[in-house]
């Protein structure tokens, strides 16, 4: 996978991909590593347990709130500079959690830490698309997704083990130190992709930074029904998985009385299934169009969510619920990276701005949907979670089916 379009050497390519994947992993680890300790956090601050899903949703909200600005800023000043700033801010917010003394300050820092996710989506993803050609970019997006999924896969279990020797405050301090090391890697290896002539002769030109023009460009995107449908579908497709991450500590540790380590072990089948789906995507990319891959992924996606509804109706318990989520997760892994690429190229506007809007819409759908599921009792009983999460995920189907009706979608992205 060395068909890069920017003029950089093989070592820099490897270093760039490793640093980018490490930063993405850390932005997720900052959430998932601490999930087994969230009940301890609320107990230490003498706060209500509702802050467990609230802190997670604030993290997602942080990923949304700056993306509208980060995309256009990176189009004008460059991706490299913005990502370095974002990584530094993320490191500082993680380190600051070590000294927090109230749940309000803790939640505020969760919001700031979540902004690191916004830098990943609005700045690093467009850079990746500009460095590599289409097929390699989709493969790397899937592989980066696998690396990011190591966080919810290993994060709860690793957090449970580390909490035997460290406090949750020391975990955040360790995350801050790791982010500093990633910053050094990005500084050394990340190329600038804006204003640089690529090997194919094309150039991602710098775009003037004007708030009036930015507003007009965002309004144009909101007036693009294909783009809007794909972005909303991205968020709704991931909603059951996001809701599970936020509510699993309440459902498994508080509701079923499992230990934090056992809670971590129950995450393995679900997130391993997403990785399996991404690996299937990587194998099928050679012979299938992106729209066809999404169609194939919808089979396990829908079967898993329908099985989840059956678990809710019949009260089949934890094993059946996790098995249904795993089947759904295979379909999500097959289709997610392909749908992101198609959404990104639904518009000819600069990819920093388009990626920011994709991220804002999809993450907002996840955060709002997760909050609604928590508010209507999704964290109180496993059956309630299974029912509401499945219904939320299935809401993406009308959008996806309408989006895929146009056969030209398969050729929306340039080679």
From TrEMBL:
Q: Which Gene3D superfamilies does the UniProt entry name for this protein?
A: Multidrug resistance protein D (1.20.1720.10)
Query: What residues form the membrane-spanning segments?
Result: 12-31, 51-70, 82-99, 111-128, 140-159, 171-189, 227-251, 263-281, 293-316, 322-340, 352-378, 384-404
Cellular compartments per GO CC: plasma membrane
Chief location of this protein within or outside the cell? membrane
Residue span, Major facilitator superfamily (MFS) profile domain:
16-410
Name any Gene Ontology BP term. xenobiotic detoxification by transmembrane export across the plasma membrane
Q: Does the keyword Nucleotide-binding apply?
A: no
Instruction: Look up and give the membrane topology term.
Output: Multi-pass membrane protein
A molecular function annotated in GO for this UniProt entry is: sodium:proton antiporter activity
Q: Which SUPFAM superfamilies match?
A: MFS general substrate transporter
Any idea where this protein resides? Answer: Membrane
Instruction: Locate the coiled-coil region(s) and give their ranges.
Output: none
Keyword annotations for this protein, in alphabetical order, are: Membrane, Transmembrane, Transmembrane helix, Transport
What name does UniProt use for this protein? MFS transporter
- Source species: Pseudomonas shahriarae
